[in-house]
Write a structure and sequence with these properties.
heterodimer; A: about 450 residues; alpha/beta; ten-stranded mixed β-sheet; 9 helices; 20 strands; about 25% helix; B: about 250 residues; four-stranded antiparallel β-sheet; about 30% strand; globular
Chain lengths: ~450, ~250
C-alpha cells in the first residue's frame, strides 16, 4: 500500500506542481481558495488511481499520467463558429454555451433570452458576481476524496457551466453545453466544473456535449454537480464524442431531494479511454430516477461506466438501462452499484446491462454490485454479454430482409432502445446520425 | 388441375443429428387450404421451420419443389421474397424497431427482388391502413416496436397483419390459434379467410380442431412421429376432435 502511494506520488510531478501553483495564485474569494487547496491536498494523497484499486481494476490511466499536462488559462480565440457546425443539433432552438479547453467562449455561444428565475451562465461569471448559490453548493456534493481526478478538478476550479433555477421555474428551452477541446501546443487539458442547482418544483433539460477539434491526444477531466430540489424535474444528457486519442474522465454527481425526478443519459462513442462516474444520491422519499446509457466503441477504445444509485430514503425508484456495442479490440466496463440503506424500505431498484460484441476480440466486464440493508425492497439486476439474437435474425430473414441488413437493423435497434429515452428530439436526431455512422464503421470493420 | 405450388417429396430432416421428420409427402396447389394436425412432439413446428429455412434444421433426405424451384437451396430471405411466409408460433420481439419501419423494410426488399419499385413511407402507410382494417388492429400498434410488450393475441394478429401486407403465395401458420381467446381467434381466422384467393395457398399447422371451425380446410393431414399417417377432408378434423389421436396412433404400432 505504502509502496503504491510513493510510486503514484512520484508520478504526480508536473500535475502537482501545476495545481499547487494554480491554487496559490488563482484569484477568487477565500472560500474558493480553500476549496482549491483542499483539492490539492487530496490529490497529493490520492494521486492517480492504479489498477490495484477495486474501482479502477480494468481501467489503467497511465496514458493520462504520461501525457504532458498543458492547461489553458483562457478559451482559444482561434476557434470559429464554422468549426463547430458538425456539433450543432438539427433544428435546435435552445441556447448554447460553448467552452473551449474548459473556458467559456462568449463569441461562440448563444445565451437564452432572459427568463425570470432562470440563470444560465458560466461559472467564472457566477463567481465574479458573488452568486450565493455557488458558495452554498460548489464542491459540496462531489467528493474530493473519491478519486484523484475529482480532487485534481477541484484544485483547478475556474470555469464551466452554472445553471440555477428558482423554485417553480421552468426553463423555456433545453440548454446545450458544448465542451470543445482543441489540443495543441498551448493546451491539451480541460477541467470544466459545472454546477446545476434546481429549486423546488423547477424543471429543465440540459445536454453536456464533449467534442474535439483535430485528432491529437488531449485530456478532459470534468465534474458536474447537480442539486435537484423537492419535486423538481431534471433531464441531464451527457454525450461524449471526443477524438479517438482523447482521455475523458468525468463525474456526474446528483443529489435528489424528496419527490424529485431525474433522468440521466450517458452516450459515449469517442475517446481512447473514457471513464464516466454517475452517482445519484436519493436524500428524500419518493424520488424517481432513471440512468440510461449507451456506448458504441471499436478499435482500441476503452469505455468504463461506474454508476451508483444510493437509496438513502424509503419509497424511491431507480431504473438503470445500459447497452454496449463493442467492435474491434475494444473493451467495455460497467459497474453498477445499488446501495439500499437501512431505512430505505419500499425501494424499487432495477438495473440491466446488456452488451453486444461484434468481434471475438472485443471484451466487456459487467458487474452489478448490490448492498442492501433494508428488508422490504425490490431489487433486480441482469447482465448479458453476447451476439445478436439468432431467433430475431431468423425472424427478420423470414420476412425477406437479407441477413446483413437484419444484423444492421438489430444492432441499430439495440442502440435506439437507449436513444429513444431522450426526450429532446434534436438531440436524438444528432445522436442517431453520429451513431449510425459509428455503427456502420464498427460493422464494416468487424 | 393446377400445377402444385409446393411439392414435398419424402422429406427427412432433423436437428443436432436427431431425426424428426421421417419422410413427409405433401402436395399443395394454389387455392387450397391444408391443415396439418398432430399431437405435441410429432414434428409440426419442425416442418414449418424446415420450410422457412431455419439454421440448424438439416434436411437429410427428399426434396421440396416450391413454385418450380428447389426450396432447400434458397436462403430464408429468398424464400420469403419468392412468396413463402411463416407465421410464428412464438413471434419474436424486436425492441427498438418500429413495427411499420420493419414491415416497410421487408416489403421493399421483397419488391426489389421482384424488380418492382420501392414504396415510400407515405404510400406504404396507405397500404398498411387498408390491411389494418381487415384485422381490426388499433393504429397505435403501428408505432410500437415489433411485438414488444404485445399480448399473445396481439402478437398473433400482428403475424397475420404482416402476412396481409406481404401478400405471400404460400402461408404457413404455425399454431396461430394457440394462446388466443375466442374473439381473437375469430378475428385472426376471418383475416386469413379474407386473404384467400385462387392463386395462393395456406398450410395451417395446429394442435386443436377449434381453428378449423373458422378456417375451413380442403384437406386435413395427421402428422405423427415425423410422418403424415392419415389424410382426408375436413371431416377428418372433426373425427380427431371426437376420438383424439390415440385411435390413429394405435394403428401405427406405437
Amino acid at each position: 500500500m505504502t509502496q503504491t502511494k510513493i510510486k503514484s506520488a512520484a508520478d504526480l510531478g508536473a500535475h502537482l506542481a501545476a495545481c499547487e501553483s494554480f491554487a496559490a495564485s488563482a484569484t477568487g474569494p477565500e472560500w474558493l481558495r480553500t476549496l482549491r487547496c483542499n483539492g490539492v491536498t487530496h490529490f497529493t494523497e490520492l494521486g492517480f488511481p492504479t489498477t490495484k484499486l477495486e474501482d479502477w481494476i480494468y481501467t489503467p490511466v497511465t496514458g493520462i499520467t504520461k501525457l504532458a499536462f498543458r492547461l489553458a488559462a483562457t478559451a482559444d480565440a482561434t476557434v470559429t463558429a464554422e468549426q463547430l457546425a458538425p456539433f450543432a443539433f438539427p433544428g435546435w432552438t435552445g441556447s448554447r454555451l460553448v467552452f473551449v479547453n474548459g473556458h467559456f467562449a462568449p463569441a461562440l455561444s448563444s445565451l437564452p433570452a432572459p427568463q425570470q428565475g432562470v440563470t444560465i451562465t458560466n461559472l467564472a461569471a457566477a463567481l465574479a458576481s458573488g452568486d450565493k448559490l455557488v458558495e452554498a453548493h460548489l464542491a459540496h456534493h462531489a467528493s474530493v476524496d473519491g478519486s484523484g481526478f475529482s480532487a485534481l478538478n477541484t484544485a483547478f476550479i475556474a470555469d464551466g457551466a452554472f445553471i440555477a433555477l428558482a423554485p417553480n421555474a421552468v426553463a423555456a428551452e433545453p440548454v446545450h453545453l458544448l465542451f470543445v477541446s482543441v489540443p495543441g501546443n498551448a493546451a491539451n487539458t480541460a477541467q470544466p466544473r459545472n454546477l446545476i442547482v434546481a429549486g423546488a418544483n423547477s424543471s429543465a433539460k440540459i445536454v453536456e456535449h464533449y467534442v474535439s477539434l483535430g485528432g491529437a491526444a488531449h485530456f478532459t477531466n470534468a465534474v458536474t454537480e447537480i442539486v435537484v430540489g423537492e419535486g423538481a424535474n431534471i433531464e441531464h444528457a451527457k454525450f461524449q464524442e471526443e477524438n479517438l486519442e482523447a482521455f475523458h474522465i468525468a463525474t456526474v454527481q446528483a443529489t435528489l431531494a424528496r419527490d424529485s425526478r431525474f433522468l440521466s443519459h450517458s452516450i459515449s462513442t469517442g475517446a481512447r479511454l473514457a471513464r464516466h462516474n454517475i452517482n445519484l444520491v436519493m436524500t428524500g422519499q419518493g424520488v424517481d430516477c432513471v440512468m440510461n446509457g449507451l456506448y458504441a466503441v471499436g478499435g482500441k477504445q476503452l469505455v468504463d461506466h461506474h454508476t451508483i444509485a444510493d437509496h438513502a430514503q424509503p419509497h424511491c425508484g431507480s431504473h438503470e438501462f445500459y447497452h454496449g456495442i463493442l467492435g474491434g479490440n475494444s473493451r467495455g466496463v460497467f459497474n453498477g452499484k445499488i446501495f439500499v440503506r437501512k431505512d430505505a424500505q419500499k425501494t424499487d431498484a432495477k438495473q440491466t446491462s446488456r452488451n453486444l460484441l461484434l468481434t471475438d476480440t472485443a471484451t466487456v466486464n459487467s458487474k452489478p454490485q448490490l448492498e442492501i440493508l433494508a428488508d422490504d425492497v425490490k431489487c433486480t439486476h441482469g447482465a448479458t454479454v453476447g451476439q445478436l439474437n439468432d431467433e430475431a435474425l431468423f425472424y427478420c430473414r423470414t420476412r425477406g430482409i437479407a441477413e446483413v441488413n437484419a444484423r444492421r437493423l438489430l444492432t441499430h435497434a439495440f442502440a435506439s432502445e437507449i436513444v429513444n429515452r431522450i426526450t429532446v428530439e434534436p438531440v436524438r436526431e444528432h445522436l442517431e446520425q453520429v451513431l449510425w455512422a459509428r455503427l456502420e464503421e464498427l460493422i464494416e470493420k468487424k | 388441375m393446377n400445377p402444385p405450388l409446393i411439392e414435398i417429396t419424402n422429406l427427412s430432416a432433423g436437428i443436432n443429428g436427431k431425426q424428426i421428420l421421417k419422410g413427409i409427402n405433401l402436395t399443395v396447389r394454389p387455392g387450397e387450404v391444408h391443415a396439418i394436425m398432430g399431437p405435441n412432439g410429432s414434428g409440426k413446428s419442425t416442418l414449418g421451420y424446415v420450410l422457412a429455412g431455419r439454421k440448424g434444421y438439416d434436411v437429410t433426405g427428399g426434396s421440396v419443389t416450391y413454385d418450380g424451384k428447389d426450396l432447400i437451396e434458397l436462403s430464408p430471405e429468398d424464400r420469403a421474397r419468392e412468396g413463402l411466409f411463416l407465421a410464428f408460433q412464438y413471434p419474436v420481439e424486436i425492441p427498438g424497431v418500429n413495427n411499420t419501419y420493419f414491415l416497410r423494410a421487408a416489403y421493399n426488399e421483397q419488391r426489389k427482388h421482384r424488380k418492382q419499385e420501392e414504396v415510400d413511407a407515405v404510400d406504404f402507410l396507405a397500404i398498411v391502413r387498408q390491411k389494418m382494417k381487415l384485422l381490426e388492429l388499433p393504429e397505435a400498434m403501428l408505432k410500437r416496436a415489433v411485438n414488444e410488450g404485445f399480448s399473445g393475441g396481439e402478437k398473433k394478429r400482428n403475424e397475420i397483419f404482416q402476412m396481409a401486407v406481404l401478400d405471400p403465395k404460400l402461408a404457413i401458420l404455425d399454431e396461430t390459434d394457440s394462446g388466443l381467446d375466442i374473439d381473437a381467434l375469430r378475428i385472426v381466422a376471418e383475416g386469413v379467410n379474407k386473404l384467400k384467393r385462387p392463386d395462393n395457398a395456406t398450410i395451417v399447422i395446429t394442435h386443436y380442431q377449434r381453428l378449423l371451425n373458422y378456417i375451413v380446410p380442403d384437406f386435413v393431414h395427421v402428422l405423427f412421429d415425423g410422418r403424415l399417417i392419415k389424410s382426408g377432408g375436413k371431416e377428418l378434423a372433426l373425427e380427431l376432435e371426437e376420438k383424439g389421436y390415440d385411435w390413429l396412433i394405435g394403428k401405427n404400432g406405437k
